[in-house]
Structure prediction request, 144 residues.
Amino acid sequence: MKEIKTEILINASPDKVWKVLTDFKAYPDWNPFITSVQGEVFEGSKFKVKLQTLGSSPMTFEPICLSFKENVEFSWLGKLVMKGVFDGKHCFELVELSEGKTKFIQREEFKGMLVRLFWKKLDVNTRWSFEMMNDKLKETVEKM
Prediction:
């Protein structure tokens, strides 16, 4: 198993962060990592995600939503080809620190036979992509 975890402090309440994070139609305008989310998103739903990490071609997959708790958490489980090959549990967490401040945590747990093959790429390119998204989310929310 491999885990990547990033976080950033956003000078806004969790509800403001949530509004931007879940406005999927606006992703192409600000999100450099997850460029598209299509379909209805709710616990148990299957939807489409298009993402692009540093140095890679865009990739589209259909994860299953594990949680969608307003102002708190949004997570999904995605897989490459079939379960057990390269699976990723992606999670966005919003933690209210004080009035008007939110810690935004983005993390993913990778499991499967091919994870070792992509270890370094995950450490560098995927982590960088998470951090870029975090920075752009902060910038977008704080401009509101």
User: Anything to note?
Assistant: Helices lie at 14-21, 27-30, 119-143. The domain at 2-143 is CATH 3.30.530.20 (Alpha-D-Glucose-1,6-Bisphosphate; Chain A, domain 4).
